[in-house]
Sequence to fold (714 residues):
Amino acid sequence: MGKVATADALRFMTDCLKSVGAAAKAAQQQAELLIEADRVGHPSHGLNRLEFYVNDIISGACKPNNQPKILKESASTAWVDANNVLGATVSHFAMDIAINKAKQTGVGWVTVKGSNHNGMAGYWSKKAADQGLMGMAFTNTSPLLAPTRSKKSALGTNPLSVAAPGSDKETFYLDMATTAVAVGKIEMQMRKGETLPKGWAQDPDGKETQDAELAFKTGCLMPLGGGEDTSGYKGFGLAAMVELFCGISSGSNYGHKIRSWSHSGDGGPANLGHCFIAVDPENFAPGFGDRLTECMRHWRELEPADKSLPVLAPGDKEKKASQLTDSRGTVSYVKQQLDSSAALAKKLSVKPMEVVE
Amino acid sequence: MGKVATADALRFMTDCLKSVGAAAKAAQQQAELLIEADRVGHPSHGLNRLEFYVNDIISGACKPNNQPKILKESASTAWVDANNVLGATVSHFAMDIAINKAKQTGVGWVTVKGSNHNGMAGYWSKKAADQGLMGMAFTNTSPLLAPTRSKKSALGTNPLSVAAPGSDKETFYLDMATTAVAVGKIEMQMRKGETLPKGWAQDPDGKETQDAELAFKTGCLMPLGGGEDTSGYKGFGLAAMVELFCGISSGSNYGHKIRSWSHSGDGGPANLGHCFIAVDPENFAPGFGDRLTECMRHWRELEPADKSLPVLAPGDKEKKASQLTDSRGTVSYVKQQLDSSAALAKKLSVKPMEVVE
Fold:
């Protein structure tokens, strides 16, 4: 592990994206999205993804300087063509529309086609929560989830996220893949030489496997809930619901029609679909924030089964991680990440990040 | 098991509710909601619940002849006071508002306070899907779900449901508790004398248990996903999200503040919260229904890991069960259910159901 000043990591990511042709604002917004993932403790969606975006720009699969546009609009909805820009560009565009509509009619519901990977889903929900609204964000992704009983994958990890503002600076924050776990967790078990818990992943025959290496090679994740006897079909249903709101609604690629996941950037335009929702709780019962905060505190104060493991409210993990990051002023990266970033700096002739300790 | 003509079971439930004072329409709508659960193969939410509603009317905890009313309204939202009517009465009232708003502005989002148990959540989503819309319905329920790491329950089984119309008469239908399983499944394992799969339920110390009898007695369910190592906190997060949309938004009772579950009807008004959403997919990309149907068919045609267990699309189980019910014209009930219904008929001086075979 090595530490890098948070501001320097942000600068580096912005520079890399600019060096391959992204305009300053697009590069900055995408870099802010990535550093936020590193800041709140989800490194899989941070600097780790940079090269993927860079390669998609180099290959022409992503066009960072296009403009997203509204194709259809009603009082509370909009249908947006991302026009193949970076995920952060169109997600700001679309969530801003949802927020404005929510302030006018109570709800804004925006679907997006023609997009690229848009990072941590929770980043977009939180954008609405920061404006006093309930926010939701969904995206489809490359196939990795095997529907219950299926040998093969047919849906992505299709995350859903929800954020809402409580009183006293509390924020409800839920950002979850609809698979049991992300691929990164399997990779981690493999590196540690440990087996997998049941319910994470399948082998090439479609059977549950606890062999981390085989699971990683197969790349076929089980839905949240695991096997059929533990209601894995609910996780499959949730992933399908996310696809309903994203690709099926927006007319982007969907499910089995999405290109497979790779960092090499040779797969052509992703044409992903997203969905952004904002709702103004002022339209319902007064005292929303107080009730939410009361709930969050009640959950934290529940007696834990194991005294050393206190109960966490949704978002507590991310809140704690971000406070730690901010107090240190640095983000930590594994050696492999630092090495590949140094190589990328060289390749793009960009000033490398400085490892401070 | 014994069979009863579907129409007779509907008649019986309507009569029982009328006999304790519910007006004809309210009784009819509640009975239709219950028979639908028996029809699609979810008997826990059918006739099985009748006595619970009847007792709540007798005790005065539920006031079936009140009128629900709109407390606040915007172009796309409404806040409704159920005024303690039966769940079916206010759910029709609220989902009709959501549907009308969706047809006008694209989205309708309605929250309800002061309500009673409103049956199978999917019934309300499907009401919107039958009108060509995406429908969603959520409700909070009495505490049964233990947040990850907690010894005790603090949320209900908080179901979420989504339905949407495909082309060629396909319907996407997802109706799921956010716990791994419902209490009824634990009861079934206990009756069969079998142990529980991991990840279903906790013992009084907050540890996972596979002892069906102990689990049933404890009444503390694990969230979808099971333990922490299989991402049970995601199921907890989903249950909390449902509460955000229901009790926290509507100002009804919520989470730990909801009365505990009992059939005896001595707990005072339930003051439950619901949320109903309708969205018109016509506001997004043309071809919504075709894409949805293509997806549903693709999932069904995926090669199964076990050839005897074909992959099911969301709603296939319910569709199959309802076709079977309709072809037979009868619903089947376990002996215990038939006995308690006969006793109820006697108690209320209502014509009993006729067991036809």
